[in-house]
Amino acid sequence: MRITLQQTGIQGDVGEQKCCICRRRFHLGPAMCQAVDESNVLYGNVCPACVEQGPEHIRGELQYHAWWTRVIAEQETAAANEEVTDCPTLDELLAAETFYERAMYETCEEYDAALRRGEID
Ligand SMILES: [Zn+2]
Questions:
Q1: Alpha-carbon distance 44 to 13, whole Å?
Q2: For the chain, first and last CA: distance in Å?
Q3: For the segment 58-109, what is each residue's pLDDT rounded down to a tens digit?
Q4: How much distance in Å is there from the Cα of 56 to the middle of ligand 1?
Q5: Helix/strand/coil for 16
Q6: Dihedral angle at the C-alpha atoms of 73, 78, 79, 85, nearest 10 degrees?
């Protein structure tokens, strides 16, 4: 894999983009770095933070995401092999939304605190 540097080709591409290395969003300006594999296939745009941290960081991020993708694929394969049971109807879902009106907690912090106190599981 090599990281290229060139002028951004299309003005419409300037703006928020997703880094193909770390998967974070970043602002793409009038110059861009792109990851290209050995077969000359474009992998995607590379953010300034990944460029700054260099080749070792980029390789580490790619290895991490490859590992994580395998974990997700294993979980999704296991889930796909299970039968789907106890599925509510759409009418039941809509009735529950009308009944509850709002979520249990306002923030993730409040939810996590309730979990720690054993109020929910
Ligand atoms: Zn990045």
A1: 12
A2: 45
A3: 999 999 999 999 999 999 999 999 999 999 999 999 999 999 999 999 999 9
A4: 13
A5: strand
A6: 170
Is the CB of residue 34 less than 8 Å from the CB of residue 8?
no
Question: What number of residues does the chain have?
Answer: 121
Cα 26 to ligand 1 centre (Å): 8
Its pTM stands at 0.70
State in Å: Cα 102 to ligand 1 middle.
36
Q: Are strands 25-28 and 31-36 parallel, antiparallel or unpaired?
A: unpaired
Ligand 1 center–CA 74 separation, angstroms: 25
Alpha helices in the chain (DSSP H): 48-80, 90-100, 108-116
Contacts of 73 by beta carbon, 8 Å cutoff, 6+ apart: none
Share of the chain above pLDDT 90, in %: 99
